[in-house]
């Protein structure tokens, strides 16, 4: 019994070392924060339209059907990187995309969409970044899955990847649809 | 000498660059001081080991401005922190709150230190106990006494 007692410090060390090592080995990015907004209603901001041809984003627009809400800016490099994926989603008609243009110059944002294509069904302008703060955004791009009731169900930080879509986001969209259908 | 004075003067001019922009500051010095103190406790979500008071990130600036608006609107510090925690979680506070899920964080080191101290105390008590009881030197046997005397005599002879 007292022999085992001598092993106790080693055991405690092993537990602590494991606690710190596992996230490194599983390559979990510690900078990606869990959202505290999950399952809460999406913040109700009335965001003006970026384009004359497309509506902006009002709180009511976030209800009625599962959708992705994507925060983007023309000055953001990773947004450019994820853009082809948004275009593909839009072409496939997999899920409606709502764009929120974060702290951008309208002319720069419009030019950016003209150059790369516009995957969004509606685009709201968040000129001062206040809506983003209410969503808990801490850097663009961020993408949210919003359910038909207008609740935030998932947050993806950083550029969307094909893998994230296939493994997590699209299955979740399907599941939310089935749950409501 | 003059050069030295000049150099010292120039060093004085080179103040650390502050993230807080004069245009953000509140007119009321008391409120501004409160804003500075509070913003030192809020984590910048972009450069995560800095407070928003230190950080030059755009989001940090937005949060500083927001915080000042709330101060002007009459919110107290707890209300402002709660507002931020609702959006960004407890992580936004540089000093984590004491609650169930953070007990290990707050009291863990104390518990480990206490366990260690108890361990050391037990170890020392045991050793002292065994010192007095069993490790007291046994008296020399007759044979040993004879050898000691022989050695001592030998040494005396040499000297």
3D architecture notes:
- The complex is a heterodimer of chains A (181) and B (159).
- The longest helix of chain A has 24 residues.
- In chain A, strands 3-2-1-4-5 form a five-stranded mixed beta sheet.
- Chain A is 42% helix and 15% strand.
- Chain A has a single domain, classed as Glutaredoxin.
- In chain A, helix 2 links the parallel strand 1 and strand 2.
- The termini of chain A are far apart.
- By secondary structure, chain B is mainly α.
- The mean pLDDT of chain B is 85.
- The interface between A and B is medium-sized, with 18 and 16 residues.
Question: What key attributes describe this structure?
Answer:
heterodimer, A: 181 residues, alpha/beta, Glutaredoxin, five-stranded mixed beta sheet, 5 strands, elongated, B: mainly alpha, Helicase, Ruva Protein, domain 3, cytochrome c-type biogenesis (chain A), transmembrane helix (chain A)
SSE topology:
The complex is a heterodimer of chains A (181) and B (159).
Chain A: H1 2-25, E1 67-72, H2 77-92, E2 97-102, H3 106-116, E3 122-126, H4 130-135, E4 142-146, E5 152-157, H5 162-180
Parallel strand pairs in A: 1-2, 2-3
Antiparallel strand pairs in A: 1-4, 4-5
Chain B: H1 2-13, H2 29-39, H3 58-73, H4 77-88, H5 103-134, H6 142-158
